[in-house]
Amino acid sequence: MFSKNIKVEGFDDELFNAMEGERRRQEEHIELIASENMASPRVLECQGSVLTNKYAEGYPAKRYYGGCEFVDVAEQLAIDRTIELFGADWANVQSHSGSQANGAVYHALLEPGDTIMGMSLAHGGHLTHGASVNVSGRIYNAVQYGLNADTGEIDYDEAEKLALETKPKLIIT
User: Fold this and answer.
1) Cα-Cα-Cα-Cα dihedral of 121, 123, 126, 127, to 10°?
2) Which of 66, 86, 106 is the C-terminal boundary of a domain?
3) Cα angle at 139 between 134 and 141, to 5 degrees?
4) Reduced to 3 states, what is the DSSP secondary structure of residue 62?
5) pLDDT digit string (tens) for 33-90?
6) In angstroms, what CA-CA distances link 9 with 14, 19, 20, 73?
7) What are the residue boundaries of the Serine hydroxymethyltransferase-like domain, all occurrences included (predicted)?
């Protein structure tokens, strides 16, 4: 684990000076661009917390990966507080992700019904790589490769055989 006392200052002074310069610029100028809002110190603290180290795909208590119990607490707090603040019945507080980037690539390169090949979700693949629970698995003819049960590594022979048999227009690795 890393020491809690290590800082950018003194380690990479060029980067630290750029960060400090931007901090001063933001404090000393009024920016009228809506997307350049100033985050409070509390927001910056949250964004720089250990929660950012955790990949937590899915929703609280319904994740695709283990070890999400504390991320679930934080996300559920955000959901509950958003519902209360806006008097809503439901809220999704998750930001957009690489899923949209994958969708853009698919849309640019593929037609509905084209075959795509990606790693099985059960073997560590991503939802957007053709899983049946994702739109990519419904719009496209998705075939999945997996891991060798004995080695835990990608079974390249099986993946090659599957690719030759199904002739996918796109292979996602």
Assistant:
1) 0
2) 86
3) 100
4) strand
5) 766 778 889 989 988 899 989 989 899 999 988 999 999 999 999 999 999 999 999 9
6) 9, 10, 10, 32
7) 10-172
Q: Has this prediction a pTM greater than 0.70?
A: no
8 lies in a domain?
Answer: no
53 shares a domain with 104: no
> Which structure tokens are listed for 65?
């990966």
Q: Which residues pair with 117 in a beta bridge?
A: 143, 171
Tokens 């110190």 belong to residue: 41
Token pair of 46, please? 């949250």
- Residue 158 located in a structural domain: yes
Please give the Cα distance from 164 to 173 (Å, whole number).
Answer: 16
Cβ atoms within 10 Å, residue 93: 14
Dihedral of the alpha carbons of 127, 133, 138, 141, in degrees to the nearest 10: 60
DSSP code, position 147: B
What phi, psi does 63 have (nearest 5°)? -90, 160
Identify the domain containing residue 160 by its residue range. 98-171
Helix, strand, or coil (residue 118): strand
